[in-house]
Amino acid sequence: MSTFYHSTRSRNERVTSKKAILQGIAEDGGLFVTDDLADKHVDLATVCGQGYQENALLVLTRLLDDYTIPEISHCVDKAYGRTFDDPRVTPLTPIGDDWLLELHHGPTSAFKDVALQMLPQLMSLAQGADGEKIMIVCATSGDTGKAALAGFAGIDDIAVTVFYPDGKVSDIQRLQMVSQPGDNVCVCAIKGNFDDAQTEVKNIFADHGLAARLAEHTKVLSSANSINVGRLVPQVVYYFDAYAQLVAKGAVSIGDEVDFCVPTGNFGDVLAGYYAKMLGLPVRTFVVASNSNDVLVDFIRTGTYDRRRPFVKTISPSMDILVSSNLERLLFYLSGCDVELVSSLMRDLAEKGCYTIPTSMADKLRETFACGRANDDETRQAIRDAWDNHHVLIDPHTAVGMHVLSERPREGRARICLSTANPYKFPADVLRALGRGVDGRDGFRCMDELAELTGIAAPRNLSALRDASTRFSDVVEVSGMSAYVEQACARILP
Ligand SMILES: *Cc1c(COP(=O)(O)O)cnc(C)c1O
User: Fold this and answer.
1) CA-based angle 274:275:277, to the nearest 5?
2) In the prediction, which pLDDT does 450 show?
3) For residues 347 and 267, what is the distance between their CA atoms, to the nearest angstrom?
4) Which residues of 92-121 are buried (b: 16+ CB within 10 A; e: fewer)?
């Protein structure tokens, strides 16, 4: 019998993983989860004897068990066959005594590709015989948008609308999005920040009137944000695969515990690591690394989540988030699958802007999760240290992780920092961190200077943006997003 998914807030709606992936978010606004994760097990010895594609097949068939093995195998081929520029897909490389897990070798140079090359394949197979067409609605703090556009462009009977916060993504990130080819895509800036966009996208999904109007044309909305379980599950794979690479390098023996440090925003990436741990990966500590939007650091230290604080614009914009959606899934598991408790916490968050978890749960949280923060100066210093000391070029998000890791005592375990973006996505900030002036230089000039300084070439997908033309220039108020989506459904999802 296949696994059932239900909401973090109730057990009324029980769906297969295909349905959960199609739908994106549960009807009551909760996120899809399954109770029996800990009963599932991924065999470490098997993981350590095989490569990325095989590990993807193993983990995905375990968690999405209403897909057949040939179906998942087809998805893995499409997602990771040729689209990554490294045969190991997510290569592990040394940095001093620690390790970087490079997650940015996909078509858009951010870790979001690992999941967003896979999600469209999973969704396409789940779509089934009833002929429903899907509009993906996606809020992005910078990287998800382009990765979703690249993943869904050209997929039959699915279209995608991306909203990004006007003026709050890097030049390169913006150009990546607004130049995206394809008839089934559109991109729009909003007057607000990422949290505004994400909150409104959740409202749009919960709008029954809109859903009914779209249903008349056999259209439905769905999500490509990491609230979609189809985004989360592919990310579990690289935690296992990183471990296999460590074993292959002789850095650990099978069964040894390791630590992961994860630059965190929406809590999707680090949560995928926690899933891997529940499935049997020997991880001692997940270190949650935040930038100055450090709501998670306070939460882990105090047990109180309080979003009522100023939103800070940083040089690691993909982590500029005050409401980390996927934390809801962690609360569900930490509470022993208590949907009533999760609902009441989420009600507090919506009504008061904060909530406090019970002490026993906070203790359990701190058994596995540690945290730290880096402000922009510390982030720049970490970029500089990585280059000066190790000749490794890292991006500002990865640098937040490296700073946090550097402040922790070494406890004798192998430590892996997730490297979430290619530094050439943020060339001006990286160049400045290395002590160069950037005044008046555009992103491409900075790319050239960075290449000259380091001898490391920019990935082709980024340098080619130089010649890209802008296809999308719409800007709307947050209140206009819903109407924009409805029009886009008529326009690009015929
Ligand atoms: C999205 C993103 C993050 C944060 O990941 P979450 O899953 O949202 O916690 C970190 N770094 C980069 C480069 C990203 O694009």
Assistant:
1) 60
2) 97
3) 19
4) beebeebbbbbbbbbbbbbbbbbbbbbbbb
Q: What's the CA-to-centroid distance between 397 and ligand 1, angstroms?
A: 8
Q: Which contiguous run of DSSP H or E holds residue 297?
A: helix 295-302
Known active-site residue 40: no
- Our CA angle for 325, 189, 458, nearest 5°, is 85
Helix, strand, coil tally for the chain in percent (to 5): 50, 15, 35
- pLDDT over threshold 80, residue 156: yes
Cα 448 to ligand 1 centre (Å): 25
pLDDT tens across 276-296, in order?
999 999 999 999 999 999 999
For the segment 407-431, the average pLDDT, to the nearest whole number, is 96
Is 397 touching ligand 1 by the criterion CB < 6 Å?
yes
CA 291 / ligand 1 centre spacing (Å): 11
Q: From the candidates 112, 133, 202, 277, give the one annotated as an active-site residue.
A: 112
Distance CA 80, CA 58 (A): 14
Quote the pLDDT of residue 36. 83
Q: Is 320 in the pocket of ligand 1 (CB under 6 A)?
A: no
User: pLDDT band at residue 131, thresholds of 50, 70 and 90?
Assistant: confident
Q: How far apart are CA 289 and CA 262, in angstroms?
A: 6
Q: What is the pLDDT confidence band of residue 37, given thresholds at 50, 70 and 90?
A: confident
Q: How far is CA 276 from CA 126, 149, 185, 438, 451, in A?
A: 24, 27, 33, 41, 36
The secondary structure of residue 102, as a DSSP letter, is: E
Q: Which residue has the tokens 């300084």?
A: 453
